[in-house]
Design brief:
The chain is α+β, with helices and mostly antiparallel strands. The chain has two helices and four strands, in the order H-E-H-E-E-E.
């Protein structure tokens, strides 16, 4: 599907929510109920694992989590063209 340059220009300023997924874990309901400040949940990813970047809940890229001047930042490693890339 082709879009005119005018339509694309109109959409460039639209804000899209982005999120990252660091990893996942499966814990028992008992462990969920026992959670308190200071509790730890170990994820299935280590500190070198890439994270997945989502735009409007759609996976769009694989990234490296970094720190840039006291803020988290993402370095794009590769983009996903479609669901086959996931």
């Amino acid at each position: 599907m082709e879009y005119s340059r005018e339509k694309i220009e109109i959409l460039k300023d639209v804000s899209v929510p982005i999120e990252i997924r660091l990893g996942s874990a499966s814990i028992s309901l008992k462990d969920v109920l026992d959670l308190k400040p200071g509790s730890h949940i170990v994820l299935d990813a280590d500190d070198e694992s890439p994270v997945v970047l989502y735009a409007n809940k759609k996976a769009i890229a694989e990234c490296q989590l970094m720190v840039n001047q006291d803020h988290y930042a993402l370095k794009i490693l590769r983009t996903f063209d479609d669901a086959e890339d996931l």
